[in-house]
Design a protein that fits this description.
Blueprint lengths: L1 E2 L3 E7 L2 E6 L4 E6 H13 L5 H12 L3 E2 L2 H13 L8 E5 L14 H5 L9 H17 L7 E5 L7 H15 L9 E6 L6 H9 L2 E6 L4 H4 L11 H13 L5 E6 L1 H5 L1 H11 L4 E5 L10 H19 L6 H12 L14 E4 L4 E3 L13 E2 L11 H6 L24 H8 L7 H29 L1
Parallel strand pairs: 6-7, 6-12, 7-8, 8-9, 9-10, 10-11
Antiparallel strand pairs: 1-5, 2-3, 3-4, 12-13, 13-14
Amino acid sequence: MRFSKYVHFYDIGNRTVGVFHSLLIRTVFLSQQEKAAIDAYLTEGRELSNEIKKTADYLYSNYYLVGSSEEDERLYNKCVEMIYPPAISNAYIVVTENCNFNCKYCFISDIVSANDKNKVMSKEVAKASVELLQRTYERQQHEYDKTITFYGGEPLLNFEIIQYFMQEVERIKYSAYWPADVKYAIITNGSLLTKTHIDFLRQHNIALSISYDVDKHSHANRTNRLGQETFDVVRNNIQLCIDEKMPYSLSITISEDTIHNRAAVLKEIMSLEPLTIAFNMLIPNRHLTPSNTYYEEATDFMIECFKRLRNKGLYEDRMMRKVQAFIDNKLFLYDCCASGGNQFVIAPDGSIGICHGYLNNRKYFSANVLDKDFDFRNSTDFAYWKKRSPLFMPECQDCECLGICGGGCPYAADYMHGSIYALDDRFCIHAKKVLKWLVNDLYEQTKLKELNND
């Protein structure tokens, strides 16, 4: 008998050891005395006291202890069998690749700055996109999340096509299968937002996410095409949303300035009271290669914000994905919809890709919405992305974050190491720090609950 290969240990302090199972996403806490006694039993065959034998029996019945490597293998295979086949859960509709901003950290800046033709989606492509989604939804009639996200560039530069797209959705509902649970969203820099836009978004239940770095110094990275600051115009339009009682979320890119000005950032987030927030760590590009220290500090910042904001009932999306998996003891396979081949990215010219990071070079954009015979289930590109999860990546098998990481960004891994199946090193730093905090936080919350019950 031995500890499972999927078991990892955390020194909690207070003479306590956290025992985390990376496949079952479960944690138990042992005293150092219990852990030492079980180690001596496993390595030297020493007898266990009746009390510690009960603990060892519990650990064995819950797969923390195994009798052989075959038991680990059977557990792994059982987890793999539970994975659903790929289903398109998110579709990015890139209505334009033009943008009125010139953000310093933009990872698709090359396509935004290029003078290529076909950078604005036409009605023909929008109509064909709706029809593609209708056919796709009809083929996969089972329960899963479905979201259509309007994206750019800056999508409000082609607001007419967003309106037309929604008209086509309403039209097709009357003639063909269209699931009632499709959600709609738009990600905008907020600079062009008007009451007309807000009224339309509200009418069609389109969730609004505004890219805004909250603190004026941090937001200075988000200049317009003339190099001018954009903070005031975006902040004014956020106020318009507040005045119009339009719920909105914030998408915040963590720069060095954000980290250094964390007090001001946190204060402003709490004063704005967005619906949710999403923090984005910097993605390497040819203009920018952040250090490991940046990713460590960015994660510390995210954890600090999460702890503060959860007391206000406000949750950050990227942290919450792992927190939810940890609480629910549920495998978190993919950190983005592109992983697993669960996403369409439809470019303005109608080409269909998987990840919007590749809008720059159109890698993995091998189909077109005008091809009515296209079925992603028969695509070699989608098949290649299908198993892009730590669960299937050899380098991840011995990692404590195996079942809770989601693998980070395949595009970043490809950019840094030449393959989507390589490690996203920056995300490894992030995931390990978050998991360590989760185990420690669980212990603190457990002890607090015990004190309250006493």
